C-alpha cells in the first residue's frame, strides 16, 4: 500500500469511528475499529485509558445525547496519526455525569489525534471544550462579557 493510500485509509477509519460509532451508536463496529491494546493518552475523568474506558465513555454519551453526532471540519494525516477538528452536536435528553436532562441543544469543539496501526485505532490524544459544554448544560455560570 502506498503512503497516500495508507494515509487515506487511516483517515477513513477515524471518520467511520466518528460517524458510525460515536454518531450512530454502532458498538459492533467499535470492536472492529479499536485495537485490543488501545491506549488513550487523555482519558476523561473517571475513565480507564484503555479500550474498555473508551467504550464506556461512548456508551455514556448515547443515552445522554441520543442524537449525538459530529460535524467534521477537517482531517490531516501525518504517517499513522490522523488529526481531526470537529464540533459535536446533540440534545441533552438523559443523565450526563449527574446532570439531569435539560432538553438543551449542545455543541462543543474537539481536536483529536488518533494513531492507526494495522487498520485499527491504537492510540488517542484529544482536547475538548468541555467548559463550553458544561456551561451549555447549566452546570457552570456563563462567562461575563467585557
TrEMBL record:
UniProt-listed InterPro entries: Cyclase_SnoaL-like, NTF2-like_dom_sf
Gene Ontology process terms (BP): polyketide metabolic process
Top-level lineage group: Bacteria
Gene3D superfamilies: 3.10.450.50
Pfam families: SnoaL
Membrane-spanning intervals of the chain: none
Signal peptide segment: none
The protein, known as: Ester cyclase
Organism, scientific name: Microvirga brassicacearum
